[in-house]
Amino acid sequence: MPIGHTIAKRSSPLFGTITWILILCCTSFLAFYLGVWTGIQAASGLDGGERKLNAPDRLDGELRRKVEALAKEKVSSQLEDLCKQLMPATTQDAGQKGGISQNNFRGGSALLPKSISHFARGLVRVAKDDLMQTFDFGVPPNQNSEGLDALILYNKKEALPSDKDVARAARYEDPSNPLPFLSAKTATENCDTMNVVLMNNPGNTRQCFALVGGQYQSYHVQRWMRRPENVGALDPKMPLKLTSRAWTAAGRQEFPPPKPRHVKNHQEKLLTYLKEADSIKHRLKQLLEKMNRKTIVVLTCNHGQSELLMNFACSARARGFDLRNVLVFPTDMETKDLADGMGLATFYEEKIMASIPKSEAAVYGDHIFISVMFAKVLCVQLVNELGYDLLFQDADVVWYKNPLDYFHDRSLPEFDIYFQDDGSRQERYAPYSANTGFYYVRSNDRTRHLFRHFLYSADLINVWSSHQQVLIALLAEHNSLMGLSVKIFPKEMEEFPGGLQFHRKKETMKKIMSGDSTAIIFHMSWTSNKDDKLKFFQQMGEWYLNEQCVGKLANEITAGKGGTQGSNSDAVLINHCCSTEPLITCHYQDKPSKIPCPDSPLIDGKGKSFYTGFTAKKGEKFW
After folding, report:
1. What is the dihedral of CA 168, 174, 176, 180, to 10 degrees?
2. Coil, strand, or helix at residue 578?
3. How far apart are the C-alpha atoms of 571 and 165, rounded to whole Å?
4. N or C: which end of the chain has fewer CB within 10 A?
């Protein structure tokens, strides 16, 4: 057996017995038939003289043919009867109850009969981890897959592995052997093309898959569910109906189409953009050329979130990062003045941004949050359209290292777009769970078409209340339609932690707090409002914005202190607002913190301090 594949064996007494019985029966019937034929030949030889005298030769030949035909018919009939008796009961029942002709089971093998040979010529197993490491599908892997296999179905015999023994086993010609287990490389060595179907069972329903061969090729999966007509949960008493993939078993419809009011609101914004597009692109192009950077770090922010933007700038400068490739798209003049004062390049388009509220969102998904999401779509689309690679990030991100060094590393596998793993595995985020608050985009025809499509489809943000949900749906479509390559950095990676790690991964946060992590950035996602983000950053030791600059306008900060507010070259707010050391404040004892906070209240109510069980490092009080 060649190296790189194995064929596991298991005993199967039933199939072994049936096989031997069939061999014995066939041998017996063949012997019977040969005996009849031999007897005819012998009789013919003995009676040769009489035949010459009493009967024409043609009558003798006709008699022989009749006897032979009778013998063949008898053998065939008895063999067919025996096969029906020996056929497993479940197969017979399926044929009788479902009205399926037994002819469907003739030819091929017990697992792969001739009736499905037009699309199923063989089947093998490969280790799931091996397959996903051999072919990077870009999706976040499930780490609980040790010992689990994937199936590869071959549509043509020419696609089967080259080894004849393996190919024979893949066709399941000997039912006493299980399906062969191969390496991913060997299993796909003769595959000219490979369609990949990622499967799970959300809701843990009694799920089935129908593979329909001989049809017009589809690259989408239809979903059918037993449910009421218009609204309601899964109901086993109802017939199967065509259903949105985001209709949950509990009855929630995560992907409803937009209502007229959503469409009207979006069309008004889009019409304004299209009227001003040439002018906007011309002015933005001039600014980008002046910045003279191949890759642009893009942010957008309104005044309600401006403290987070300012903290990003202060923390980055405290660590010595060059921010001359950072471009902020403020949604109001107040935020523009603050960003200019922090020494950041800005691009403000009042006609487009005028409809976006200035105040902060109270919670994730409220109407202010949704309005700001249009700015997130617009700023990325514009920079990408003008031919620049970009890193988009929300304002609630801090850098430990310059993330562009990571994305510019030539050893990084090349994809069109890279995302931080959000960590949530809700069905509405399938199959990527991309966090749309931190992602890197290469400018090419595929990504430009993606973000144009996103811009035109932004009415879905209004009804789904999620920028993330809409973009992920488009990623899946463009991955299939255009070959857009998407990479999600798995949540197990240390380099790009966020809210999942902060709220649920205590050991990961312990490494970050002690400085032993390889984290490049930290994104305060999974946090419902700005006040909590601010407190968590303060507790982590990632807050560098002085108190006198929180919630203030630029002219209020500089009043009576000298300097010309709003001058990008002077960056007058930096000295007033930025601390060179982190401003650490305790708020909650059960959240990650740079120092122990035993006297602070619990926020999650679990009654366990973040520091419980931690051991101090030698020479330090707490680490």
Report:
1. 20
2. strand
3. 73
4. N
Identify the sign of the CA torsion 279, 280, 281, 284.
Answer: positive
Q: What is residue 348's predicted lDDT score, i.e. its pLDDT?
A: 96
Residue 454, Cα to own-chain centre: how many angstroms? 18
Q: C-alpha distances in angstroms, 139 versus 191, 254, 425, 487?
A: 22, 21, 12, 6
H or E stretch covering 13 = helix 13-46
- How far, in Å, CA of 496 to CA of 477, rounded? 26
Selection from 219, 168, 170 nearest residue 193 by Cα: 219
Residue 115: in which H helix or E strand, if any?
none
Q: Which 3 state secondary structure label does DSSP give 611?
A: coil
The stretches of 523-592 forming alpha helices (DSSP H) are: 530-540, 554-558, 573-577
Quick: pLDDT tens for 271-307. 999 999 999 999 999 999 999 999 999 999 999 999 9
Return d(Cα 290, Cα 151) in angstroms, integer: 54
Strands 326-330 and 149-154, sheet pairing: unpaired
Q: What are phi and psi of 401, to 5 degrees?
A: -135, 165
DSSP state of 256: P
d(CA 192, CA 209): 24
Residue 606 CA: distances (Å) to CA of 133, 535, 588, 603: 38, 19, 12, 8
User: H or E segment at 297?
Assistant: strand 295-301
Q: Count of H helices and E strands in the chain?
A: 21, 15
Residue 462 CB coordination number (10 Å)? 21
Task: Write the single-letter amino acid at 268.
Answer: E
CA 401 and chain centroid, separation: 27
Tokens 């993939």 belong to: 245
DSSP secondary structure of 383-424:
HHHTT-EEEEE-SSEEESS-HHHHHH-TTSPP-SEEEEE---
Distances (CA, A) of 570 to 95, 547, 581: 84, 21, 22
Give me 443's structure tokens.
């400018």
What would the pLDDT profile of 503-538 be if each residue is shown by its tens digit? 999 999 999 999 999 999 999 999 989 999 999 999
Q: Does the CA dihedral 466-468-472-475 come out positive or negative? A: positive
Q: What pTM value is reported for the model?
A: 0.81
Look up residue 296 and give its two tokens: 């642009």
DSSP readout, 329-387? EESSHHHHHHHHHTT-EE---HHHHTTS-SSPPSSTTSHHHHHHHHHHHHHHHHHHHTT
pLDDT, tens digit, for every residue of 250-262? 999 999 999 999 9
Q: Closest Cα partner for 429 from 472, 474, 460, 487?
A: 472
Q: How many residues does the chain have?
A: 623
Q: Would you call 293 helix, strand, or coil by DSSP?
A: coil
Q: How far apart are CA 157 and CA 148, in angstroms?
A: 26
